[in-house]
């Protein structure tokens, strides 16, 4: 019989668990495999550039990044995700994050990836981390092919907070005992609702807020 978990720790993926952003790598490898056109590649790279420079609303940018997946088969996405994880992402896991995960697991915590990244990437990376659950973006599939749209919504900004709170309610976790590890201002809503917000190498806007509120800052 499984022993109930004592509390829960949520981790963002890009720039939190990983020291890099998985999106551009996924796009680049998809182009190499002939899964996207040159136009789609240029559009995706342009959106990525806008995202980095905070030149457009990040929710619109995340939605735009999903469009290049339209028309790709489920099998191709699964193979692509596994390839990107094994070639790039495993080596980009922050050693300090592995220490944090071990710390929580020793205290019988449930470990959850909460990320806007596609669940295919999260699941492929999970065994290297000891993850219990994935709350990520799931893309819509029709007749074995991705439509470019998410199921429900992209797991981003306030949607992260909504899913975090819902999961804690369903699993009977106390939010005041929950941890969330995030790196940037889109993580703010999720960080605000947990008892233990942790900012990992935060961007300038999140760093300012973290200092003002006395949140834990990990400058890894």
Annotation keywords:
single chain; about 220 residues; alpha/beta; Rossmann fold; two-stranded antiparallel sheet; 10 helices; about 20% strand
Please outline the helices and strands.
Layout: E1 7-11, H1 13-17, H2 22-32, H3 38-52, H4 58-66, H5 74-89, H6 95-106, E2 109-118, H7 119-125, E3 133-137, E4 139-142, E5 145-150, H8 158-171, E6 179-182, H9 188-193, E7 196-200, H10 204-213, E8 216-218
Parallel strand pairs: 1-2, 1-6, 2-3, 6-7, 7-8
Antiparallel strand pairs: 4-5
Helix pairs in contact: 2-3, 2-5, 3-4, 5-7
Protein architecture, described:
- This protein is α/β, with parallel strands linked by helices.
- The longest helix has 16 residues, at 74-89.
- It has helices at 13-17, 22-32, 38-52, 58-66, 74-89, 95-106, 119-125, 158-171, 188-193, 204-213, and strands spanning 7-11, 109-118, 133-137, 139-142, 145-150, 179-182, 196-200, 216-218.
- Helix 2 crosses helix 5 (74-89) and helix 5 (74-89) packs across helix 7.
- The protein starts with 6 loop residues before the first strand and ends with a strand.
- The protein is built from 10 helices and 8 strands.
- The strands form 2 sheets. Strands 3-2-1-6-7-8 form a 6-stranded parallel beta sheet, sandwiched between helices.
- It is globular.
- The protein has a single domain (7-218), classed as 3-Layer(aba) Sandwich (Rossmann fold).
């Amino acid at each position: 019989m499984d022993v109930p978990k004592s509390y829960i720790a949520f981790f963002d993926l890009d720039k939190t668990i990983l020291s890099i952003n998985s999106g551009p790598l996924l796009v680049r490898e998809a182009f190499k495999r002939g899964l996207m056109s040159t136009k789609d590649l240029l559009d995706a790279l342009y959106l990525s550039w806008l995202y980095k420079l905070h030149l457009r609303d990040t929710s619109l940018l995340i939605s735009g990044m999903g469009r290049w997946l339209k028309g790709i088969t489920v099998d191709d996405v699964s193979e692509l995700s596994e390839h990107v994880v094994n070639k790039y992402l495993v080596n980009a896991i922050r050693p300090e994050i592995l220490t944090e995960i071990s710390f929580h697991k020793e205290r019988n915590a449930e470990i959850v990836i909460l990320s806007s990244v596609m669940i295919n990437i999260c699941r492929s990376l999970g065994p290297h981390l000891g993850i219990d659950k994935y709350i990520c973006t799931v893309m819509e599939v029709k007749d074995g092919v991705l439509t470019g749209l998410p199921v429900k919504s992209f797991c981003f900004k306030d949607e992260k907070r909504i899913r975090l709170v819902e999961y804690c309610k369903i699993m009977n976790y106390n939010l005041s005992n929950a941890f969330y590890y995030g790196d940037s201002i889109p993580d703010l809503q999720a960080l605000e609702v947990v008892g233990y917000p942790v900012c990992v190498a935060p961007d300038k806007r999140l760093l300012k807020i973290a200092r003002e509120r006395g949140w834990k800052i990990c400058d890894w």
